[in-house]
Amino acid sequence: MAALSSSVTSRSYRSGYSASFSPVKGNRHRSLSFLSASSPRGRLNIHDLCVRFQSKSARASVSMQDGAIVTDSNPTENKSSLKGLKEEVLSVLSHDVAKVGAESDGQNKSTVSITVVGASGDLAKKKIFPALFALYYEGCLPEHFTIFGYSRSKMTDVEFRNMVSKTLTCRIDKRANCGEKMEEFLNRCFYNSGQYDSQEHFTELDKKLKEHEAGRISNRLFYLSIPPNIFVDAVKCASTSASSVNGWTRVIVEKPFGRDSETSAALTKSLKQYLDEDQIFRIDHYLGKELVENLSVLRFSNLIFEPLWSRQYIRNVQFIFSEDFGTEGRGGYFDNYGIIRDIMQNHLLQILALFAMETPVSLDAEDIRNEKVKVLRSMRPIRVEDVVIGQYKSHTKGGVTYPAYTDDKTVPKGSLTPTFAAAALFIDNARWDGVPFLMKAGKALHTRSAEIRVQFRHVPGNLYNRNTGSNLDQATNELVIRVQPDEAIYLRINNKVPGLGMRLDRSNLNLLYSDRYSKEIPDAYERLLLDAIEGERRLFIRSDELDAAWPLFTPLLKEIEEKKRIPEYYPYGSRGPVGAHYLAAKHKVQWGDASLDQ
Question: PROSITE patterns this protein is in (predicted)?
Fold first, then answer.
């Protein structure tokens, strides 16, 4: 934190000494010294050891004079001297320093305090607390940890635990000791009621945190599960009144990160008044999904894919997100943002950047995020003519009437906010020049799914079209990565149907995760919370990613809203507006999820 003091941290080693590290901002330079109770200032300097060693070993030096090797005349005495020095050093390190290390060992153990700000909200109850319990159940949390809920609701610790207990399940392997684990977990949960902009209330939280930290090195993680308009107030109070004084302090910020380029930049500037960039963990839970994280593994560790990952072989790439339900009471929040901001500008664009990036120098978080930024900076701003927007309307099916978007009581009457959008995007670099990247996202559609579809070019020459009449231009190879549900990776190939004739059809080479792996796939929030605790930033969004991403959508959003562009209406439970198919056809593409054999 910019407003925090950075103090010296130390670690006691079981080998009999303790090392003290003095961090400098950025962790680029550290000083290392060995502590000793017997040295004049309690500090045994490496330089002093070297000087003493050199003075005692001078007579044992070996040099070259006129081509001859000259050694000391009394090697036995020198060996004895060196042996004595070695014993002296070991004695200092093993006796005196071990004593100091033993006395401070209990104090130097660290603890992690996780504070969920907005603990009474839906996100906390549905995702955050279950994810924290799953991490505890699997033994992934540190030995010493405490969970605090913080919100405006008045609750005692007991009432808070009762609320949290209703959100927990024993889904993980259904082991017999799950009930015991749940009780242990709840005993580490505490509550503090307060306003999000109150320094006084955050000071009360700080006192409670210190009581549970009991003098250990305190590491603190704040999860802001609150509306974006109060992010800065909460960060200011946490920074100035409840941050760690001898460990790290990190803050997880939920999307949306602004509404456009201007508001996003303003939010980043405000946060950085109280936090350093490496303390801000901007979370996009889609980046924590198993198949999204596997994307780089699939590409960079399999020789058959990387050579094909370019305009030479790929005809188009599709990122498809669909939900089979409407806003259902969340219309007030959703209407302020719409489907483009809610899904396309963050979830789908982040996946696109991971998909299209060049090979990073390493798996280090900064190397990966650097490559993502390069992709975003190479993209064209989206043109209005390359976008279709829609909104679901009421529809009766099977005797059941499904409501229109504007039937939601939390949605303003006559709202034109899109609940569906399809867009064509382009990356102007050597690898992807001319390849359309199509996005499609919508609510109240016919199915719930999220997938990446890579459609390859047709086979040159089309040999089987001449011989069998099969139109392979319409049956090209397709790689499908199904993010949810029923996680899977499958490759669609053309194959001969068994028999005496020559007839072709399309078949799938299928990796269905539920068949291949017996272990349950962790929830995205579990992975991202664990990464935040461990300081792994690879799956979190850096500020310059936002700076590069928002300009792609801001001109489009302003034109839609300022000109009050009317969305194309589609029935609840359908495949969306017909205009989406015309958009795909304009770029000589067919939506992969539109075929009957998808």
Answer: G6P_DEHYDROGENASE
Gap between the Cα atoms of 406 and 414, Å rounded? 7
Tell me how far CA of residue 345 lies from CA of 37, 133, 330, 552, 584, in angstroms: 58, 31, 19, 9, 19
**Of 182, 36, 44, which is closest to residue 97 (Cα–Cα)?**
36
Tokens of 163: 């609320």
Catalytic residues: 347
C-alpha 286, offset from chain centre: 8
- 585: CB partners within 8 A, 6+ apart: none
Among 506, 374, 352, CA closest to 437: 352
pLDDT digits (tens, 9 = 90+) for 236-270: 999 999 999 999 999 999 888 989 999 999 999 99
Tokens of 430: 């050597």
Please give the model's pTM, rounded to 2 decimal places: 0.78
Q: State how far the alpha carbon of 106 is from the alpha carbons of 219, 248, 261, 294, 554, in Å.
A: 16, 19, 48, 40, 53
Asked if residue 453 lies in contact with residue 592, where contact means CB atoms within 8 angstroms, the answer is yes
Ramachandran category for residue 328: left, alpha or beta (phi over 0 → left; psi -120 to 50 → alpha): left
485-501, pLDDT tens digit by residue?
888 898 888 777 787 77
